[in-house]
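note to self — DONT lose this again. spent like an hour looking for the file last time. sequence + predicted structure for the chain T wanted, 503 res
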Amino acid sequence: MPLAEPTQPAVAAPMAAGPGRTKTFGLRATRAAIPAVSGSLYAARTKIHPEAVRGTFRTIKWVLLAVTLGIYYLVPFLRWDRGPGAPSQAVLLDLDRGRFYAFAIELWPQDVTYVMGLLILAAFVLFLMNAVAGRVWCGYVCPQTVWTDLFMAVERLIEGDRRARLKRDAAPWTAEKLARRGAKHAVWLVIAWWTGGAWVLYFADAPTLVGQLATFRAPPVAYAAILILTATTYTLAGHMREQVCTYMCPWPRIQGSLTDAHSLNILYRRDRGEPRTAVKKAAALRAAGQPAGDCVDCFACVTACPAGIDIRDGLQLDCIQCGLCADACDTVMTRLGRPTGLIGYDTEANCRSRAEGRGPVSRMLRPRTILYGLLVAGVGGFMLTSLATRSLTGLSVLHDRNPQFVPLSDGSIRNGFTLRIVNKRPVARRFALAVEGLPEARVEVVGGTPEALAVPADATQEFRVLVFAPRAARLAPTTPLSFRITDPASDETAGTRDHFKAP
């Protein structure tokens, strides 16, 4: 059986059969026979054809693939009633109005702190996942992994499994080969196109935009975004695949500092698998009282790996912890009547403990997991509390810069301010303005009255406010002022501070 060489020019440790052993399958050598690379920092990429497997981890990946793709493609079409005049799309990033809608949540540009908090929360969740189970995010729900799995499923459906694809790669071009390759790339392009199309639906009303796209009446920026995302999806998921995870993504290098000996990772149980040998030879060795491991050197784990690595060489940068090698190994062990779990999620501490003849070691609760858990709970709780108690009214004030004050003929001093009131409710409201901190001050609103500042629904409104200090007032060069607005209908208030300037 031909073996796809890994893309990373790593040199494996010698196999159990002793130094100098060269085990080949067809015309290609295994990792143990790959010589050291010299004179070049990079190895030429060999196309990897993973073999289809069945098992627990593959089932989990199929379920998560269906769930995540379903969320991505279908969420723009979900509806949410926000009242008259408001968009009815459940999740919408409305760039024209500067709003982000997520079901009952509406965020304004002033609420950018919630977006920052969400990013921080996502980072801490990723740290916690890594501390508990390594690159489990990469192996199951990373967008690159999800779309690559989908593209590989299409490839298997059209061109066959690993052996058929390897045979077709080596064969000359025929009408059948051209037809299958053309059909595969056509389906890939359709998936990539719809991926880009689904993305732009988050920025406008989905049903309306679909109709505009179909009749070529959509804005040019929508077509440009779809074209860019189509090209990137087709390239990354169809052609680059494991190269993205190994070379482009920074996470493999970051996760090393977040993983310790008690983190779960896909590992090979060397204490049980070594020394490797064929099935019949293993039986003979055991009959003679000599050691023989459960690993039969079938390379099923290697051919199932989407990164083309040999997990028996230990934890590697390329490994995304998807568990497909464990499913492949379990299938072989089941056929041979041996216990499963030769490859599976384990910890380095457990491996060392077994090698020393001691029992299993499990420390899921340790300082780093407790710290990450507390950070996730703290940031998440703060954001939920802040969202639940946030005010739907906002007030900001800007003092005139030039001039900062104006002496009037009657001896009084005037300061000018620009007030901006934010009304985040879907109904128009009237606010009453009060200015405190300057005794006997008189307040005027240009074009209105302080008792009735009208603000439209879901909008901001600016007001020109003049504050007069009487002649008899004893004024310091700077006097603190407090501005407060009140909605009489709901008793909701908002306030801010500034200063009154005088000679």
